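How a chain folds remains the central question behind the approach discussed here. In the encoding step, the backbone of a single protein was reduced to a row of integers, each denoting a local shape. We regard such an encoding as a compact summary of how the chain folds. The sequence in question and its structure tokens are set out directly beneath this paragraph:

___
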Amino acid sequence: MAKLILGPTFEEMLHPDKIPSAIRQRAVEAKTKDPLDPINLFNITWRDGNNNIYYHVIPHELTGVDANIVVLYGKDFPSGSHKVGAAYSVLIEKQMFGEVDPSVHTLVWPSTGNYGIGGAWVGCRMGFDSIVVLPEGMSQERFKQIEAYGARIIKTPGSESNVKEIYDETHRLRQNPKVRILNQFEVMGNYRFHYYVTGNTIVELAAQLHAQGIGNGKVAAYVSAMGSAGTIAAGDRLKQVWHDHKIVGLEPIQCPTLYNNGYGSHDIQGIGDKHVTWIHNVMNMDALMCIDDIECKKGLQLLTEEVGWNVLIKRFGVPEASVRKMATIFGISGVCNLLGAIKTAKFYGFGKNDLIVTICTDAIDRYHSVMEAMTRTYGKMDEAEATARAHIFLDQKLDWIKEGTRETRRQWHNLKYFSWVEQQGKTVEELDAQLSPEWWHKHQAMVSEIDKIIASARG
């Protein structure tokens, strides 16, 4: 086996101050000076070089609700998205258990966007030949970034919701004995990163915000759209800390798979992949809400163009510093998550002492081409249009909501059968095992075991 390039443990991703100081200092310096240096693996964390969490409290003037809505944002991770954490966790686990060797294997990263970008960054930094399988309809910025990180691309038909076509291609590639598929929709390293690192970061943030007079020290609800359903795994950790905590999943109105077995094409890039993923603990989800992809794109344009900034500041009283910040941290799925958080606040009647947390996965740098297409379709946004778009946030409706009853959760679980048993070779026994909380607890407990193996391998 070739000499392995190793990065942080789960605990070091949660608390980067536990990384040996010389390594951490080198990583922080390389973040801007040499972002392709493998030392940047030690920058995979929700915290900056001063150990501050990447978060922003969304102004009430934009949300229109009394509850405090806070976003963690991923744009300052290596590769510009927190999905790099999931990609790294998947790969380091495979390395530690001897399943991949950079001198032998080619890695395949099935994705609709950010996981593929993260896989290209991680795989090539860790010395692997990497291929990203990606729908041809994704934003051009995604393809350019993957190639810039040194990975190859295979384009499949369709867009965001055409995951079946990705699976078909990976099945073909799997016939080569030197290929290893790192399927974010299936492998539990993705789940573990968000359960442990994202989840515990949010627990600590709630206490930090409470000390600042924001919230009551607990997280009332965690809201996340499902792509791979990695990010929503943080909710499993939060529910262990606060048993009355609500986990709310989101999907597009245009592709409401869990909501009503629906299907269709949409453009909230990174979510709504027309199936229920293997790593999604649907038995723990309290509600499902659907969000309009056009509202998400119009909302993003409002937050990232100057006419929108002026309207938010002058007409709606949103603090200018917050407007400038939000312009840099939101992508399409981030707006989706924010709209879902507003919907959650209204649905549950959360008030001024409550805290709702959600995620901005990436930022506008991946969607300039999408915004240009929006302008061609709807015309240039003027002040009147920007004013109307602010009400996408302020007047978010309480439609397209389904609560996670015992019966509904079982229906969500049963939907896994068609992708994973019929198409991907899982057994019914493996599927039914996921009905038990113990199945998930076992995978959560593996974090400490894997950390010991990583630490030992680093010497």
Observations:
- The CA atoms of residues 308 and 386 lie 5 Å apart.
